[in-house]
Every structure is written in structure tokens, then in C-alpha cells.
Amino acid sequence: MIDEYEEKILKEEYNSEFSYNENRPNIKISFERIAFIFFIFFIIAIVFSSKVILLSLEDKDFKKKILKKENFRSSIIDKEGNILAKTVQVINVGINPNLVIDKEKLLITLKLLFPKKNFRKKIYGKKFFYVQKKISQEKLEKIILLGDKSFIQEEKIARIYPNSELFSHVLGQIDDNNNGISGLEKTFDYELTTSKNPLILTVDTEIQYLIREELLNSKDIFENIGSAAILMDINTGDILSMVSLPDFNLNKRDKINDPKFINRATKGVYEFGSVFKTFTIAAGINYDLIKPETEFNKLKKKILCAGNAISEYDDKIPSDLTAEEILIRSGNIGSARIAEKIGIDNYDKFLQTIGILTNISFDIEEVGETQMGRWGKCKLLTVGFGHGIATTLLQLTKGYSIISNGGFDIFPTLIKKNNYKKSKRILNEEVSKSLNPILRKIVTSEDGTAGFANVKGYQIGGKTGTADIATSGGYSKKKINTFASIFPTSKPKFALVVMLDEPKANKDFVYHYRDGRLPYKGNWRNTAGWTTVWITGQILEKIGPILATKY
User: Fold this and answer.
1) Does this chain's domain 76-143+151-200 share its CATH topology with 207-550?
2) What pLDDT, on a 0 to 100 scale, did the predictor assign at position 40?
3) Which of 11, 100, 112, 243 is such that its CA lies 20 to 30 A from the CA of 513?
4) Nearest to 498 by CA among 489, 488, 486, 506
5) Within 13 Å, how many C-alpha atoms sit on residue 131's CB side?
């Protein structure tokens, strides 16, 4: 109920308003007109604001649409969060010649914008052509300012790779229909097209760049036709770097069918030579058939097997050596004798165990298979020093990791995992305890073959391998040079395996020793000790500080 006081107030307000309207009819009409005009402007303002809001949200809306489109793929990033592959909106700019008013004037303008391109034939001969796909914002703005209606903008979704060639063999390619056709793009095609979450890899972009840079330098020095390197955590199987040269620019979307672009890290199958001698001694220790100090006396310089000669690469190798000395001096005859002592069954079992004779399961499909043929007496001897068996760099890296990490099984991977479980031990722990110090001596001792890799502070150890490339008629003079290394040998963490395909000797190259000796110019040998080991030392000098800081 309204009391008397409130009622009085309401009446006064009503009468006041009524009196105002009655006494000022002209003002009332003017007010209504103003209100109407204000309403019109209000509607215009709303429409304009809506357009502004829509324009401001256009990019966001577009991105939402992308997520629903079939051509969307989630990003691929390295372990540090750096983008390796990403789906983005791009603008392609083309020209419709039929809309060009002055073609000669436009040609001058295009020459200023794109000095390396010639559009004359296109502008006179085609209905439509692209001036620039994935055009930069700067050039797009310049074209817009021209105000030429003959320019046509086209919004597209594109897969871009910020590092171009850097991870080409790892990431792989997609086709024009957005389907992965190689590498991780193929293996994880479903995940990349159905999930918004990025695919996180184990690789490190900074380390990948530095290793690739040194492999490119090797081509300048030794003129090798190709190369490859794998850096792996020997305890987790995480691959920090995988490089294969030559590589290719992923952004150009070219179909790579040339055999020279084969992934030499995983797909290429090679005889690696003397790096296998480490496996021979490891097998002997694993089955308690030899120890590092086991003596082998009266070793011949040459032996015959099935009419074929097996010789020492160096006549200066003594006739009496321990197993350790055989590995340090890379003796062929001594390694064959150790293999003979191990026997076919044991050696076959050992190579199966460490993944050399078994097909490796990996994150990309481009993986080769070991080629060896049937076991026999002569095959046992030649495999003992690394000939007559061909495998992949990936399998070689896995094998060296297992014999150095305490004998634990590992599974090489490019995909980052949240939790790592300790694998089971598959080798006698004495293998690592015995071999790691010997691998270190190969780098530090005068009799060793890997002195150029003795980078101060990193305790690198490893074994060289120089193998003649097999042909249909035997072996050529061309070589595959390899250095399989682990570091630090006191507590191994990483395996770094580097391979050069057909390196040549460089008589003009100056080798700088790391122990203070005077530089050495020129060398007629193209063995691993003078090629791959040198490159490995250069790599370690670059990546060593990063590994020590990050990992």
C-alpha cells in the first residue's frame, strides 16, 4: 500500500510532467525528432561495431574453421618446444591478365617487387597465374597499396617447416591431399590429423644444427657423396639428433625419388668394417670365453679361408696380442681368432640380442634390414672383423649403446615419453665394465686409431671402421668410414655414431692435433681415423658444452 506522503509525491510528479507537455507542444515535437534521429544513428553504430568485432575475430574464427577442416595437422615440436612443423594460414597472390589495364606498367611494378622473377610470358599468355605463394606480409601490403584489381588474393592452409632441410628425413613429407607419405608425418598421420596436441619429439634443434653443419663441412674437406650421424641417450634410447645428407627442403614439397636422398641414418645398409670388432670382443666377454687380458699368440699376417685371403691392414701389428690390444690396434687376424673361439651359435645369438640381426621397430618406416647371408666358417671369421655383414647406422648405434650402458636393452625413439622404465639387462654387466676403458684407450693411446676425437673434458671412447664398398664383383676402392663412440667413458650417457660415404683423402688439409703437437698437413689415406674421427672431434667440441649444460 502507498501511504499519503508517497501518493502526494507521485501526483506532483505527474502534474509537473503533464503541465510541461501541455504548455510546450513545439518542444515535444522537436524532442521526438531528435530521438528518432538518435535511434537511426544508434542502429548504424551497432551495425558498424558488429562489423568491427567480426573483423577483429575473423582470424580466430578462421582458426576455428581450420580445426574442423580435413587439411589441418597438429604441430610437431622438439623437446625444447621449438616448432618443427606447423599448419598455418597463408595467402597466395595471383594475377588475372584480363583485368590488367596497362600490362607494361604492371611488369615494371612486378620487377621491383620480385626482381628475380620474369612474368612477361605469363602476363601475355595465361588467364591466371600465381605471382607469389605464401607471400610475406611486407610484399602483400605493397601489393594492396597499388590498388590494382588484377591482383587476386587467395587464402590457403599450408604446412610449413621453419627449419627447411634441418629435419627433412626425420619429419618426412605430405602429399597434396595432406596425407603423410614419409617420416613421422606418415607414421603419425592419424594422430596429427585428429589431435590438437602437438607431437613432441626427443630431438634438439640446436644440436641438430651443429652436427649438420660439421657434416656439411666434411663434404668440403673430403668430398664425400653423403654422410649421416646419430646422437642418442644410451640409457633411454632418446635420439637427440639424426642427420642424413644430402637432405631436402620440406617447404618446396618436391617428390624425392633420387637414391642420393636416401635416409643414410636408418634406411641405408652398409658394411661398417672394424667397428664390428667391438661386438666380437663383447660377445667373447659376455659368454665368459675371453677377458681383456686373454692372450692370442703367433697371429699370422695372412690366413686363407675357402681360397680367400684375410690379411692385416697394417704389417706392423705384433704377432702376440691380448684381446684388448687386438681391439686397440684393430687387428683383423686377432678378431677372426676371437670370433672362431666364440663360435657361430654364440655369435649369432649375441648379434640377435643387441639388435643387429633382428628387424628394428622404429618411429619411421624408412628402415633397412641387415644383410649377411648364411653362417659358415669363413663367414664367422669375416664378420668377426666387420666384413660380410651389412646393417644400418641406427642398429649400429643401438648395439654400441647396449654394450656400453651396462648391458640394458633400449629402444631407439624420436618420440618424447613422460615416463621411462628401466629396461631389463640382456648382457653380462662385465661387458661394459671391460669394454668402456678399452674404447677410451683407442682414443688416447698412441696405438689407437681415433686420436683426433680426444676432445679435452669429455672422455670420449670409440672404435673406427673403414670398409671397402661391396660390388657385384667383389669390393671397390671406395669406402664407408665410420666412428662409433660413447661418452663419457667413466659413466656413459651418449652414443655418437658418424658415417661418411665415399670420402677422399685431402693432401692439402691441415690437421690440428689436440695434444699440443704441431699441425700436420696433407695425408694420402682416406681411412676413418683421418676422416670420420676428425669430424666427430669437431662435432663434440661444438655440442659438448650444450650437452653438459642441458643434459
Assistant:
1) no
2) 52
3) 243
4) 486
5) 26
What are 81-117's pLDDT values in tens digits? 999 999 988 899 999 888 888 989 989 989 999 998 9
Strand 76-77 versus strand 199-200 pairing type: parallel
Say which CATH superfamily domain 76-143+151-200 falls into: Penicillin-binding protein 2a (Domain 2) (3.90.1310.10)
CB 522 within 8 A of CB 509: yes
Whole-structure pTM value:
0.83
Among 211, 153, 233, 157, smallest CA distance to 398 is for: 233
Three cell numbers at 544?
A: 659438448
In angstroms, the CA 196 to CA 369 distance is: 35
User: Residue 541 to residues 121, 407, 439, 460: CA-CA distances in angstroms?
Assistant: 52, 28, 19, 11
User: Domain spanning 207-550 has what CATH number?
Assistant: 3.40.710.10
Q: Is there a contact between 251 and 160 (Cβ–Cβ < 8 Å)?
A: yes
Q: What is the DSSP letter of 413?
A: B
* pLDDT value for 63: 40
According to the per-residue pLDDT averaged within each range, which of 19-33, 69-83, 116-130, 327-341 is highest?
327-341
Instruction: Indicate the domain borders of the chain.
Output: 76-143+151-200, 207-550
Q: At CA 199, angle to CA 193 and CA 202, rounded to 5?
A: 155
Q: Which residues pair with 485 in a beta bridge?
A: 462, 496
d(CA 379, CA 396): 19
First CA to last CA across the chain, in angstroms? Answer: 81
CA-CA distance, 227 to 240, in Å (whole number)? 17
In one-letter notation, the amino acid at residue 52 is: V
Count CB-CB contacts under 10 A for residue 417: 12
Dist. CA 412–CA 517, nearest whole Å: 39
Asked if residue 331 has pLDDT above 50, the reply is yes
pLDDT in tens, 348-370: 999 999 999 999 999 999 999 99
Burial of 19 (0-12, 13-18, 19+ CB in 10 A): exposed
For the beta carbon of residue 466, count every other beta carbon within 10 angstroms: 26
- Where does 412-473 show beta strands of DSSP type E? 461-471
CA distance 137 to 367: 41
Check if the beta carbon of residue 397 is closer than 8 Å to that of residue 499: no
The pLDDT of residue 540 is above 90: yes
Residue (of 481, 449, 411, 463) closest to 270 by Cα position: 481
Could you read off the pLDDT of 263-309 as tens digits, one per residue? Answer: 999 999 999 999 999 999 999 999 999 999 999 999 999 999 888 88
- CA dihedral (320, 326, 329, 331) positive or negative: positive
Confidence of residue 34 (pLDDT cuts 50, 70, 90): low
Over the stretch 364-399, which tens digit does the pLDDT of each residue have?
999 999 999 999 999 999 999 999 999 999 999 999
